Amino acid sequence: MSETRPSRPLIVPSVLPADFARLGDEVRDLCEAGVDRIQWDVMDGVFVPNLTFGPDVIAAARPHSSVGFEAHLMVVNPDELLGRYVEAGCELVIVHAEACTHLHRTLGRIRDLGARSGVSLNPHTPADVVAHVLSETDLILAMTVNPGFGGQAYIPSVEPKVAQLRRMIDDSGLSIELEVDGGITDSTIQGAAAAGADVFISGSWMYAYPDGKAAAVEKLRTIAAENSPREGAA
Ligand code: DX5
Asked: How far is the CA of 94 from the centre of ligand 1 (A)?
């Protein structure tokens, strides 16, 4: 097993489907369910046609969590917001390559602020966009839906790009997590894991799972591990 990959598949919920009137309780529930991190989908109503969490909302939820927070910034000007979300308690900040004129510098600034850096690619954006910033990033997110809303259908044509990113990361020898986000369920996770993803964002499927979130987390983690093409996988 490559020592540059997480030791097991990571399951990270999006809180988009949560009851926003009870975010502290919702965060505690997710931690009790055994999630590895929690993702906050930050939307500015311009980069995507939806509006969600400001840094103060995330800061209010932070004391209720025993796991790390990641901010997925679906915003047109992430450079102006990086510090606010790090201060709010996000240990990982993900920006969209499509929103960054100087992506190499933006990723470096995230690290300078003391957080881990991530770059997200919309379904249409080719993997080569990140070829020259691998040294600056700790995570690459391949969107498997067009961002903006939960509950959308998984786009399987992104899987070849996931596989290409997997090869790029492995060839680099760098410790970079490969994350997918959008339409992840107990069936779609198989293809994403087989393509080489390490980290799986789930929102609507996890929240709707009839046996509860802990069972949903375990099911996704098991299926991802069974389908992950890791040499020497446990
Ligand atoms: C899209 C969001 C969603 C969310 C996951 O902008 O990023 O992908 O996190 O939503 P589901 O799991 O419901 O597709």
From this structure: 14
